[in-house]
Amino acid sequence: MGRSTMLLTAIRKSTPKSASFIDWQRFAMAHSPEIRPAVRVGLGLGIPGSVLLATGRTDLLAYAVFGSIVGMYGRAPHRRQRLKNQLLGAAMMLCAGICGIAMAPLGLHGWVLLAGGMFWSAFSSVIADRYGIKPGGAFFPLFAFGALGTLPVGELPAVDGLIAFVATALFSVLLGQADRFEAMGERRRGATAIPWPAILRRARTYLLVIFLAGAVGILLHVEHLQWILAGAAVPLAAGNARGRLRRGAHRLAGTLAGIGALLGISYLAPSEPVIGCLIILLMFPTEAYMARNYGLALSFFTPLIILMLQLANPKIGSQLVWDCAMGNLLGVVVGIAAAAVVERRPSTTKGQRGRIAEIEQQHEPR
């Protein structure tokens, strides 16, 4: 009896430790960086970015950064599917970004900026839902339009920026095809497509939420309206209220952490070439954690974005940091609240809503 009691006691003591170890392993796997996709995306910006640094055109890094985001759409393990996803992602990014570049000489702001943001958010939402590409949602095309459309240019569009943008995007697609691929193996069952009524309802939600967030920003005379529009779009990638709250919280926490890191970088007063190198290096951890820990990824992505915009327009200075923080806060709050009101009466079944949440799960941000 004594030996049996000792054995049972040993089992009881060891079981929690084993379970705890397994839980720790699962947590570590869920939040560990993904190296191969990060290397592809990092090279997608690193090689064109190094050319810009070598030629002294650090002001064009903003265009290259948005072009390299096309690499984030290249996570599919099979060649044909990855090519399809990246071409669709490139089409969304290039169309929205080129539109912003073309409109930049007009001084894109206010209601015009809001109208363009509404269109590209709804358009990107439809494409992402229809083809199930990831990152889902409309954040990246919307932000590309707003950020590139508000950069200061002369009376004509920035042709050199356009070349950097398009060339980096195409280079990212080529890098995606140069990687090793998994064997096709057994044919996988095709994913159930989201019905068109649900796709259109999702696009309608983007239209209304972006409009409300932008209108609030305009009425409050927010200078950099694109931050509010981007902040409002982030929670919409989730398929339910709980997911939106979680994603919005990640957005705010990651943004604040990124601003803290940015303040530390600014204190060191690095030169423009050093800032350019930091922008390139920050893209690697951004992609490495985007699918595993959205908040942590944003802590790298936020200083990357602000630094590249400051290189493109040195006059904005510290005002951009304040607008980034307040714009994200306002956008996330309005986005979550407005989405809850707009989708109060869902017309789809619970299973369909679950499918939407799965396909629209951001890589990102997301």
What's this, in brief?
This protein has helices at 2-31, 35-54, 61-68, 79-103, 110-131, 139-149, 159-178, 196-219, 225-233, 241-268, 272-290, 294-312, 319-342, 350-359.
Assembly type: single chain
Helix content range? over 70%
What's the N-to-C terminus distance? 57 Å
- Rounded radius of gyration (Å): 22 Å
What's the overall average pLDDT, rounded? 83
Number of domains: 1
Largest sheet: none
Low-confidence stretches: 359-366
| Binned strand content | under 5%
* Structure annotation, total helices: 14
Count the beta strands. Answer: 0
Q: Shape, please?
A: globular
Structural class: mainly alpha
- What sequence of helices (H) and strands (E) makes up the elements? HHHHHHHHHHHHHH
Subcellular location: Membrane
Domain Integral membrane bound transporter: 212-340
Protein name: FUSC family protein
Keywords: Membrane, Transmembrane, Transmembrane helix
Structure description:
The structure is a single chain. With 366 residues, this protein is mainly α. The protein has one domain (35-177, 194-359). The protein is built from 14 helices and no strands. Residues 359-366 have low confidence and may be disordered. It is a multi-pass membrane protein. This is FUSC family protein. Residues 212-340 form the Integral membrane bound transporter domain.
